[in-house]
Prior knowledge:
The structure is a single chain. By secondary structure, the chain is α+β, with helices and mostly antiparallel strands. It has helices spanning 3-23, 57-75, 185-205, and strands at 42-46, 78-80, 92-102, 109-114, 121-142, 148-169, 175-181, 211-218, 221-224, 237-248, 255-271, 276-283, 291-294. It folds into two domains: 7-205, Rossmann fold, CATH 3.40.50; 211-294, FlgT, C-terminal domain (Thrombin, subunit H, Beta Barrel), CATH 2.40.10.410. Strands 1, 2, 3, 4, 5, 6 and 7 form a seven-stranded mixed β-sheet that branches. A hairpin with a 4-residue loop joins strand 11 (255-271) and strand 12. The chain starts with a helix and ends with a strand.
Amino acid sequence: xxxxxxxxxxxxxxxxxxxxxxxxxxxxxxxxxxxxxxxxxxxxxxxxxxxxxxxxxxxxxxxxxxxxxxxxxxxxxxxxxxxxxxxxxxxxxxxxxxxxxxxxxxxxxxxxxxxxxxxxxxxxxxxxxxxxxxxxxxxxxxxxxxxxxxxxxxxxxxxxxxxxxxxxxxxxxxxxxxxxxxxxxxxxxxxxxxxxxxxxxxxxxxxxxxxxxxxxxxxxxxxxxxxxxxxxxxxxxxxxxxxxxxxxxxxxxxxxxxxxxxxxxxxxxxxxxxxxxxxxxxxxxxxxxxxxxxx
Length: 295
């Protein structure tokens, strides 16, 4: 490789970075004004969004699922778990469907071109504005009973500027760079809808009981499958319930209810990241599988 070729490639790289920096302005971050949540955190899972090809298909479904999961984690009021049956069981499951999807509606644009480096390089840049709309329908389902706790919908809108910048090596004709997005309009509209949906989900979760399970019971204490990850604190008193007969629909096999008998209370003594130990306050000694509920 000659010195001339090497220098020319260095100039191409530098010029590309200049255009990239100028075209892709940072997206404004949403302010997080919510106070730190210090209540007991309920477990929740997010099912894969339903999205037909007319509303973006699998790309939209996976992207929206990831964004809602992240938003619920960052919100701080919930412990978000996988709904695959492994690990901690969720108290509720969010199921959502994309019902409206307008990737771009209206907008305008501008383009410029020139050769800033004395004919060695040719530069091209264009900018266009777009507005996108996305609407989602939500169902919050009690994982223990399968019943729909609440339904809601949320719509998001976003206007964004999409910039395309590129450089052409006028000697060799090779194009460098590509589309540089300041923000994808449909992604921003989806994020707007999700931020509204989080508060709706939180409202529905008020009707879902907080619960944990007895992992083991021994002379030195009762072990619970909830710890600092669910905001459990020393001194917390929990009632102990023993599952009894399971009532199922003879036609469908669906679990209709599980009879529960209150057998006593325990008080949390020590808290670990994902586990707590408690002592018996009154009633029968708990056994593995007993359910704990907040008084």
